[in-house]
Amino acid sequence: MQAGHQNIPPMFTHLHQLIRPEWLHLLVALSVLMFIGSLIAIPWLIIRLPEDYFVGETRHLSKTRVYHPLVYLLIRITKNIFGAVFLLMGIAMLVLPGQGILTMLIGLSMMDFPGKYRFERFLISRRSITRAINWIRHKAKRPPLLFDHE
Question: What's the rounded Cα separation, in Å, for the pair 61 and 72?
C-alpha cells in the first residue's frame, strides 16, 4: 500500500487514485457554491411564478414574445442554457449538498421541450411539492398557486 493511502479504506483506494486532492477541493467549493446558489435562486424563481401558471390545459403565451424575433430567440436560448445548468446542478445535488429535486424542477421549468407543461402539471400535483412551493410563496407574501381543480 502506498504511503498516501494508509487512512483510506481499500474500497475507496481506486477512487482516491482517480480524484486528485486539487480536484477534490474544487468539487467541494463547487458544491458549496451550488448549495448557496440554489438557496437564493430557487425561492426567487418560485416567487416570480405567476399564481395562475398552472390554470388551463395549455400554457400561457410568453411575455417575451413582444420583443423583436431575434431578441426573443436569444432570450429562449439563454433560458434553455440556464435551465440545462440548473438541471445538471440538481442532478449533482442528489449526491452533493443542496436542494437537488427542487433545483432539477426549476431547471426543467426553464427549458423548452415537448410535453413540458403536462410534465410540470403532473409534478406540481404532488401534495408535498405543492406544499413546499406554496410555503415559499407564503413567506414572500405571495398568493398560493392556483389550479384547475380548485
Answer: 13
